[in-house]
Amino acid sequence: MVEKLLQSGIHWEKKEFRRNEFLKISGSIDTHIYFIENGSVRIFMMDENEERIIRFGYTGNIIVSLDSFLSGKPSDLYIQAIKKTMVRMASKKDFYAFIQSNEEHMKFWMNVLEDLVLQQLEREKDLLINAPGERFERVLKRSPKLFQEVPNKYIANYLRMSPETLSRLKKS
Question: What is the pTM of this model?
Answer without folding.
Answer: 0.90
